[in-house]
Amino acid sequence: MDRIGIKEKIKSLSRLRTEDMYLNDFFHTWKKSDQEIKAVFEVADILRGMRNNNISTRLFDSGLGISLFRDNSTRTRFSYASACNMLGLEVQDLDEGKSQVAHGETVRETANMISFMADVIGIRDDMYIGKGHTYMKEVAASVQAGYDAGILEQRPTLVNLQCDIDHPTQSMADALHLINHFGGIENLKGKKIAMTWAYSPSYGKPLSVPQGIMGLMSRFGMAVTLAHPEGYEVMPEVEKIAEINSAKSGGTFSKTNSMAEAFKDADIVYPKSWAPFKAMEKRTGLYGKGDFDGIDKLEKELLGQNADHKDWECTEELMNSTKEGKALYMHCLPADITDVSCEKGEVAASVFDRYRDPLYKQASFKPYIIAAMIFLSKVKNPADRLDTILNANLPRIV
Amino acid sequence: MDRIGIKEKIKSLSRLRTEDMYLNDFFHTWKKSDQEIKAVFEVADILRGMRNNNISTRLFDSGLGISLFRDNSTRTRFSYASACNMLGLEVQDLDEGKSQVAHGETVRETANMISFMADVIGIRDDMYIGKGHTYMKEVAASVQAGYDAGILEQRPTLVNLQCDIDHPTQSMADALHLINHFGGIENLKGKKIAMTWAYSPSYGKPLSVPQGIMGLMSRFGMAVTLAHPEGYEVMPEVEKIAEINSAKSGGTFSKTNSMAEAFKDADIVYPKSWAPFKAMEKRTGLYGKGDFDGIDKLEKELLGQNADHKDWECTEELMNSTKEGKALYMHCLPADITDVSCEKGEVAASVFDRYRDPLYKQASFKPYIIAAMIFLSKVKNPADRLDTILNANLPRIV
Amino acid sequence: MDRIGIKEKIKSLSRLRTEDMYLNDFFHTWKKSDQEIKAVFEVADILRGMRNNNISTRLFDSGLGISLFRDNSTRTRFSYASACNMLGLEVQDLDEGKSQVAHGETVRETANMISFMADVIGIRDDMYIGKGHTYMKEVAASVQAGYDAGILEQRPTLVNLQCDIDHPTQSMADALHLINHFGGIENLKGKKIAMTWAYSPSYGKPLSVPQGIMGLMSRFGMAVTLAHPEGYEVMPEVEKIAEINSAKSGGTFSKTNSMAEAFKDADIVYPKSWAPFKAMEKRTGLYGKGDFDGIDKLEKELLGQNADHKDWECTEELMNSTKEGKALYMHCLPADITDVSCEKGEVAASVFDRYRDPLYKQASFKPYIIAAMIFLSKVKNPADRLDTILNANLPRIV
């Protein structure tokens, strides 16, 4: 994309309503309007275009981007750090450890104490059903109260870097990859995407990826198929959202317990392991009671249940059954690759190998998506501001 | 504060002598002149004013701010990071662990090795009486020698982020909060501040907060009352400093073993747990001998002694006895709140609740105080330089 | 150095061929041409000169410098952070822990996932013979493939911050120290440098320092003497490189099993402990088989072997035997100092004491050497670019 392309994108952005994003948080894609979703894509493209033309994308001369991760994370950490850096924010990690003990007074106080110079807070908290999103809301309410009381001189906005319900930076990056791959958001209409469960030897992978994909892709008029073995149901609320979205967008949302059915004639396949929602709910309950023996027992049961479905693997045979045998294979990475990272996994090595470049490309959109979410939450007139930045034409590398 | 207000503050700053702060460290408030203390407040206000007017406060285009914490710290870490970021310095943490084993050659060498690009070093080392300040002096002497020998191309200055004796960034932030609350430094004259011990179920909290408060507030003509149960004496040297300061400033410094007496008609109350100085001295001795059984025994004794004073709590009743029942409640946070963070603590939940916003506001001054200390140690003519920065009028957010 | 001096250095740089450094990695000094080595020294001097004249050395407005350390490191970490900061890059640490388990798919994927906004990756991986360099090559190949496939929008270049074979940032900083000490690279011709083994109570120190020194200093026409007790041989490949270099540069490369012989009439002495290459090779094999008992046994053997050579110490007597008794003493730090850091070590306390300032000065070149390596890998016409930066004349401190 050259400067003229960027200019056009800015013009297109100027037609979208984004006022409600200003000083607001990004929790779930389905809480955002179609125009807001589109604005994120546009800003991400514009920022990428500017960076590729060696134009500085800094919005901030100084300021902090706080990161708060409940578990280890390399990819998300670097995506967030990249997004902050690109905009001129310095990342400061708040390392609270893996425990989820902070509540009430502590959350309120800590949220304010770290935010005196914070422009944005990125949180990843996906480990317990019913917890992550709740925690993020608590942090957001705390800094809002601090801002309203004149304690915080700016309202740090929140970006959900993965919660127990949605994974918006992943699904939005995935969608932008699709938009690029198929040559426009309008070309997604009618495309069949198979969001399917796949076998992994590990246990307890979050539901936020399949839920995020269903919740978002159903907005573009796509034929969204959710496939999983019986017992691997996702949250009913999110299924409902996908149904409503599909109805509105002129797409379809269907469910099946057959991987083959999902793959049949699919334009896009997204095979990935996750844990059953009901089991994860139970696990949260056990955790709350401190019943670690119960958790161990549950884990064993789930691993046993898992082992019954080793045939849920994205094989060459299945790939052959997709549209012209050439469906786009997607994954949020890292994937469990048969004979590479494990004996039996989500995907055959030869399939993964063939799609490595597109998979990495898919991941490359995430820093820009995060930067766009931050940008839109900190700027009232994003099109004007991007125009100013573009015209200033400061080089990223001197 | 608008630009005109900032201009006036800069003019007021220009009348203060700050030459001795240039390339110098900030260890204890009582080592600084009245004009120097005032200059820190002015610069803090100016930086805050500029940031609120979206004016970049960067003094540095690049450079490092080293942080060295002997124990875990969220608040101080973020305050220091905020201060560095605001001025354009990138924070690099030197994680030496909790042990205090480094001496002599190692300190000298490490101090120089980390300082080739360091403009400032912030140290928190408050765990052992007789150790923290001594260590900071050793680091300062090491980098001074390196600078004098032409090894370091700039003299990194030190900011004491809490030592065993003083906590200047806390007490100065507290004072700036009072100045704002009472509408001017001159209005502190005659105000009664009760720095009192309070019960906490934990053990060994540092003396640097009460000592810092006594050592600083006694300079403003205030009626400083130090209250604690018998046996909870602070360092006699700091009591002497408070006496001398009070005599000079036209204030008073008094001591009592009654919390009620201290609260009576107070304008400001600061109830907080700390450990007895004598016991902490003994602990350092045991630590030096590696007598960990002795330390355990001492801890048990102190917890026992503590438990005798559960009635030292900041209750509604005590608050009612203050000036018009409306004394300003202060705390360095986090506080031990009865029925919230513990069964019996330093303050009643209803009192804490009522003062939450002022407490957070109090904390909000710390990043600016630290930034002001750094600024004054790196710039010979701070008023001129701030004028230049103000006139450059670069936006913090584009 | 004033602006005129800097201008001259830039002119001198403009005559050197550095095209092959552009978008390329820095693994071993002996893979670089003489002009490229010289260019690193020139750029380091220029950057140091600019910083000393308070001229901003930023090449980047934003961007990340990734660091990846296999073991704890304070000095290298801060040198790298300083170099990145000086050029405008923000450091992000990738903490992979001390284990060396990542291979193939994982390395390829991780290298790309962290590099979307990365301009440079600094790696220190010196723990296992046959591993560090191999790993770095794997990372470099991964990001090259990502760049070629259009996944990475810039090619992050690698800087070897110490591998199992070479330690180029150390040896180059050491050489720049010598150039400064002796008043020019041409004055190194004919100087005798004794790279000698010395006793340390610890075990398994890397070979990369002696190998790096031999491999580099042999290029300047110096008389390089390698001294060690029998059994402490280094990698034969690197001895070969030193021989070839010496023949080309008009110097000599000799070996001896006598510390006294090496010190005799030396202009420079570099006494330092290292582990025998053969033993380290064996250790890698045991590690590969997970034979930790074998590793323990080997360690005991090596410590026993070590203890036979406690007389390999840099004493005053040995120093007296050097050229006019005034050889320049060098060490990469930290040194094992007899009676200071251990009972019996690499160097006598009085020798170390006398050379402390030159030792610290020696270390001070490393951040600039690293910055120069980065600069030359990111800029096609370094002389032009430095001229632009110099003429822009932006202040480092406002």
UniProtKB/TrEMBL annotation, chains A, B, C:
Organism: Sediminispirochaeta smaragdinae (strain DSM 11293 / JCM 15392 / SEBR 4228)
UniProt keyword terms in alphabetical order: Transferase
Family according to the record: Belongs to the aspartate/ornithine carbamoyltransferase superfamily.
GO BP, one annotated term: L-arginine biosynthetic process via ornithine
GO molecular function: amino acid binding; ornithine carbamoyltransferase activity
Domain Aspartate/ornithine carbamoyltransferase carbamoyl-P binding: 25-178
Protein name, as recorded: Carbamoyltransferase YgeW
InterPro entries, alphabetized: Asp/Orn_carbamoyltranf_P-bd, Asp/Orn_carbamoylTrfase, Asp/Orn_carbamoylTrfase_sf, Asp_carbamoyltransf_Asp/Orn-bd, Carbamoyltransferase_YgeW
Domain (Aspartate/ornithine carbamoyltransferase Asp/Orn-binding): residue spans on this chain: 213-374
